[in-house]
Fold this protein.
Amino acid sequence: MPIVYKLSDTLEELDITKNKLATEGKFRVATLHELEKGKSKSISFETLERILVTINKITLIEGKRKVVLNDVIDFYEDDTIPSVPLSTYLKTDNESSASPDIVVDDKDNSTNKNAPQA
């Protein structure tokens, strides 16, 4: 399946429970479980937006990083789906990384891949 739901990994990383997210965002916990298990055949833009807005409200209050769409859902060609979590390839400051091409800048949460330096 080329669509990969990464919400559970993101929530775990940010130490946010599905129950807290559902309560704050005013939607069913079952919706999050369906996404997590791949049982949801579709997800509306409205639901995606509410998930992102709610997580970012929580992370703003808790002083954590901002979440973007690729933290919740991603697309891979069938033969390129990573067999390990994407976070394995990301590094911040002094952490080691499996891929030197991908670096997360904690200051603005952007991901640069061999970006030219200004």
About this structure: Residues 39 and 102 are 31 Å apart (CA to CA). The beta strands are 3-5, 73-75, 102-105, 110-113.
